[in-house]
Every structure is written in structure tokens, then in C-alpha cells.
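FAQ

Q: What does a record look like?
A: Structure on top, sequence underneath. For example:
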């Protein structure tokens, strides 16, 4: 069994920031369970473009208000605590944070822990 608290991660190498967001990475590839899980904060008043070409991501919002846009269609979905979106088709998307957003993010395949978005906006598929 692995038990962790957010304060165990803050300020360590498992806390990663990139642009408008900070990701506190709780479960990673090294844990060997086939997925990773982060507690991510996105700053209020920002718009972020994301595209997980190599990963599937589920995002469950626990704090804040905003919206997510599916770029291919222009469809916009409102985000509030209790809302989940699943990028089951590697969807290019934009997240707009009206207030600070806090979300639980699950990735398959699991993140190694050092990923940030590259120039095309996606995470590389890291193996170690
Ligand atoms: C919602 C989203 O994709 N935020 C970017 C950070 C990412 N979820 C991560 O690495 O935790």
C-alpha cells in the first residue's frame, strides 16, 4: 500500500509547473499500477491549450469554475466541482479558468513525472 498527502509532494520533484498550471503528481509510472494520478491547479483567468496525443486523460474537477472547449467541433462544456471530462479520443482542447481550477487528472499510460507540454502542446511518451 502507498499512502501520501499533498504536503508530502509540495516543493519536491513530484510538483511540476508549466505555464498556467501546477501538477502535484501522486501516482507515477514508477509505482507500477498502469496509470498516473495528479492533483492539478490551473490559475484563474487563464486559457490553456492541451493535446494529449500519446495519452488518455480523465479530469475530475473538485474546485473552481471554468469551461473546456473541444477544438475539433467548437463545443464548449461548463466545468464546476463534480464535473468530469474524459479525453477518450486524444481530443485537442482548451481549458478556460474563470476562477482557480483544481482537478484530479488520471493518465494512461502513466506519466513518468517530468512531462511538460512540448512545442506542439502534447506530452512526449516517456518510458523512464
Ligand atoms: C487539465 C490539464 O490537462 N492540465 C495540465 C496538467 C496535466 N493535467 C498534468 O500533468 O497534471
Amino acid at each position: 500500500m502507498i499512502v501520501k498527502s499533498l504536503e508530502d509532494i509540495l516543493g519536491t520533484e513530484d510538483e511540476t509547473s508549466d505555464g498556467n498550471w501546477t501538477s502535484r503528481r501522486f501516482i507515477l509510472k514508477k509505482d507500477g499500477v498502469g496509470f498516473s494520478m495528479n492533483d492539478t491547479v490551473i490559475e484563474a483567468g487563464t486559457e490553456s491549450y492541451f493535446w494529449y496525443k500519446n495519452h488518455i486523460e480523465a479530469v475530475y474537477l473538485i474546485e473552481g469554475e471554468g469551461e473546456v472547449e473541444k477544438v475539433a467541433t467548437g463545443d464548449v462544456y461548463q466545468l464546476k466541482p463534480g464535473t468530469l471530462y474524459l479525453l477518450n479520443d486524444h481530443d485537442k482542447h482548451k481549458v478556460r479558468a474563470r476562477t482557480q481550477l483544481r482537478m484530479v487528472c488520471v493518465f494512461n499510460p502513466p506519466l513518468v513525472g517530468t512531462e511538460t507540454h512540448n512545442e506542439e502542446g502534447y506530452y512526449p511518451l516517456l518510458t523512464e
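Q: Is there anything notable about this one?
A: The chain has a mean pLDDT of 91.
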